[in-house]
Amino acid sequence: MNRDILDSEIKFLPGVGPKRALLLQKELGITTFRDMLYTFPFRYVDRSKFYAISEIDSASTYIQLRGTIQSISLAGHEKNTRLIAIFSDGTGYIELVFFKGIKWVQEKLKVGQEYIVFGKPSVFNDRYNFVHPEVEPVANFAAGARSAMTGVYSSTEKLQNGGISNKLFTQLQTKLAELVQGKIAETLPGYFMEQKKLIPLERALHDIHFPPDPYSLDQARRRLKYEELFYLQLSLVKQKFIKMREAQGVMLPRIGEAFNYTYSHLPFPLTGAQKRVLKEIRADVTSGRQMNRLLQGDVGSGKTLVAIFSALQAIDNGYQACIMAPTEVLATQHYNGVFRYIDTNKVKVALLTGSTKTKERREIYAGLADGSIHLVFGTHALIEDKVQFANLGMAVIDEQHRFGVDQRARLWSKSEVAPHILVMTATPIPRTLAMTLYGDLDVSVIDELPPGRKPIVTSHVGENQRRRVYDFMRKEIAAGRQVFVVYPLIKESEKMDYENLEAGYLAITEEFKQPDYITAVVHGKQTPENKAFDMNLFVSGKANILVSTSVIEVGVDVPNASVMVIESAERFGLAQLHQLRGRVGRGAEKSYCILMTGYKLSKESRERIDLMCSTNDGFELAEADLKMRGPGDFEGTRQSGLALDLHIANLAKDSPMLEDARSAAIDILTDDPLLEHPRNALLARNLQNMKQDIIDYSKIS
Length: 701
Ligand code: ADP
Ligand code: MG
Fold this sequence. Notes:
Blueprint: H1 17-28, H2 33-37, E1 43-46, E2 63-75, E3 82-88, E4 93-98, H3 102-108, E5 114-119, E6 121-124, E7 127-131, E8 134-137, H4 138-143, E9 149-152, H5 157-161, H6 166-180, H7 190-196, H8 201-207, H9 214-246, H10 257-264, H11 272-285, E10 292-297, H12 303-316, E11 320-324, H13 328-338, E12 349-352, H14 358-370, E13 375-378, E14 392-397, H15 405-411, E15 420-425, H16 431-437, E16 442-446, E17 457-462, H17 466-478, E18 482-486, H18 494-511, E19 519-522, H19 528-539, E20 545-548, E21 561-566, H20 574-581, E22 592-597, H21 603-614, H22 618-629, H23 655-671, H24 681-691
Parallel strand pairs: 4-7, 10-15, 10-16, 11-13, 11-14, 12-13, 14-15, 17-22, 18-20, 18-21, 19-20, 21-22
Antiparallel strand pairs: 1-9, 2-3, 2-5, 3-4, 5-8, 6-7
The structure holds adenosine-5'-diphosphate and magnesium ion.
């Protein structure tokens, strides 16, 4: 068999060997030549340029200096010894620090000689220094013929300590480039590259590591990004086309008693946006095709009612419906809330969660299987194997990003017919990301809040103003309002987080003493009974304050709550902060979100907090979030099963290219839906290879 050289294990690359191979794998995930080849520089340094020491500031990344060594000395002792060279270029002095290979450095560096120093300045004791920089005598530097642009690759402390410096990494890449030359198979058809003016893959893979000039680098990047975005879209669009042709859907033409009862019992008119979305759904469920719709709507925009009306349409046509929520708290709230609107004489409703008692659970299973239960609310418990429906016609998934793709897929097998699927999310997803994450779904947006909502006033408060925050809480409580106090819960430091929460709870109960004040507490370590009890205290208005982890982040609706205090707000992402803030401002009263933080904030945290204070618009925040953090961290992307950690393209920054790639994919598939034409053979083959890496989500939602 003609093995692809790119599949060779990295240890066989000259200069690597077993020890470094292990390090490369652990630190950078590089196991093959291909992985190495696709590990691109994250920046390039123009090595014809020199910085002045006086120019160095906290924004400096990799830079190059030219100057002389003034003195060399040893500091520390025993295991701690380090060598410090004082380096000057006439504009200032800076320390070069070496912890390792001290002997070698001592021999190499000479006081009074001129050197080129390359590295990233760091701060130590309020001064800048270079730790283990590259140092080369000026004479050598001039002699080495190098491209003006040198790649800088991501590194880690372990790599540095293991001797894999940027210099060595670049040498390895050079060796690799020699070995694979002439052996990289093209992945795009010739006609397509010509049409889109893309350079060949082999050249792109060379120039991205060793760009001869900025123009070539641009071309290389463009080619690699385009390919990445194009194949992603090709796969999504192909699935969408297949679904459109194949997936039959149950017909729900009748608007009947159940729907009309609820419609006439609403205490308020539906918003224009709610009506529009219901029309879109109605068109879907009377089309004969299976509906796969994503409903995006900011927190508080009234998605629950859309879910309920969708369910009622199924019920009026003799089908069952389910509404699945990510947490027990939410599912229970949906269930309890529905009695306000539903004709329970006609529509039989049930709630199925992890804590449903065995006897009741059996009854629900039976009722779903024989069709006597029409509408069921629940959590993951709904997708357990034992649950079977007589005829599920509509499945609504609330806050869908909390569910994994495979979990959604299971809903399909619950009934003879494939139900219509409506997934709802309050995490606004920027257009470019939605196009990719949900490239195979139709999208509806509720872009209007129910009337009378007052914008939430958001402020950033430091630890030293805690007293004022307490006073403010007291004032709001005296006016009859309720207050949320939320603590972060981040997996790695779970134990510490709970300690923070406990301490916070104690402090609050100390400050807001019973019997004047009642404080409820909710977190993941409680038994379901305790959680439900405390939650209920707050929802029913008996508790003034709810202290919790971010479990209340999604969906919880307490219109009387007017203050959201978020502790250690710097530890939350933008999407999460916005979700939390959406828990207030649901009633007619003016509402407040107070972001408490420590004193020292990173630049990014400060940006996030400032942004939160400046806008209430979830879509605006989502766009900003995508730009700041990239899609990898975007809520929902990780569970999507999609390879969104793109190598080189960036969903936030490359949106014009993404749109172009999508329309190119649509054009090709419109002509040749199954990619059977010989000119598209390469596309068909690569798509097939790609599929093996991605969970097959073509059957889902
Ligand atoms: P979300 O979209 O975040 O799930 P909900 O469905 O929980 O929002 O609705 C938030 C609040 O707005 C609820 O109290 C709900 O009763 C109320 N609501 C929903 N639709 C309307 C409307 N058309 N007019 C007034 N209030 C509404
Ligand atoms: Mg909701």
